[in-house]
Prior knowledge:
Blueprint: E1 2-4, E2 21-24, H1 30-42, E3 49-56, H2 60-68, H3 74-77, H4 79-93, E4 101-108, H5 111-122, E5 126-131, H6 136-148, E6 152-157, E7 166-170, H7 175-190, E8 196-203, H8 218-239, E9 247-253, H9 259-269, E10 274-278, E11 282-283, E12 287-288, H10 292-300, E13 306-309
Parallel strand pairs: 2-3, 2-5, 3-4, 5-6, 7-8, 7-10, 8-9, 10-13
Antiparallel strand pairs: 1-4, 6-13, 11-12
Helix pairs in contact: 5-6, 9-10
Amino acid sequence: MKSHTQPTSPxxxxxxxxxxxxxxxxxxxxDAGLIRYLDFFSNQVPFNAAYFVHVQPxxxxxxxxxxxxxxxxQGAVDRDRLINVMEQKxxxxxxxxxxxxxxxxxxxxxxxxxxxxxxxxxxxxxVLIGQRTDRRSAAILAKNLIRQSRGNALIVPQxxxxxxxxxxxxxxxxxxxxxxxQTAIALHRQLKxxxxxxxxxxxxxxxxxxxxxDPAMQPAEAVFEDTIRVGFAAFLNTAAGDYQEHVDIVIKKxxxxxxxxxxxxxxxxxxxxxxxxxxxxxxxxxxxxxxxVTEELLDRNRTIPTLVxx
Length: 310
């Protein structure tokens, strides 16, 4: 483990504050974008500490082979060398590191298991992980990490741009949606440049949705949307309070058989550059259950940084 600077006292703020963050580095293509995004994000939101970790996957035969041939394969098992590589990446791409207490660590084992162990040890507020566009395994790790982490999780796609001009919050009016919107508002309050908050509800007509192009369905759709607007007013009064004038509501009919696809297509059309989504409540058995819409959205999304709020 390697650390730099001294921890500072918590920053008082009416918005978001990250006392401890955990950042997983793969020592590969996603790292530069992830660190640059962290640099941008930590300049918007107070960060007290950032713990960078790389987990070297190990399996029985490979681990035994490397142990027996340490001298020949010293570069592959040299923790100090890998920590220095991590440090150089951060020095190159994170200008705000001088204001943040930084530690570096390299571990060996199952990546998910090691990250979850650190998450519990550090009592993290936020886990950050990069997402490669060409690897299904990375998406699986990201979803499992979100399920089991104790705090919020930020997934940063490889090609994400460090900017927040429009924040999309998909909602279903549940308590999880309230948390998501309140988190988006807290972030909005701290942004150095104003951003839009779009609160999106995707509705379905149930079995009547089998007739999507039937003109006779238009009155039913109008009634549905009027009802949703009434629900939105009550929802915003609870979740946003006096800040609701900064929130624009969007109502969309589900297209096809997927709410997540409708959300993703809308996000792409509107050039959304940040999403905040809610997750379901804690379970002692499963630690964390994500809703099916959130799960599918993470599968589909390959460009937009997404904050999953617990």
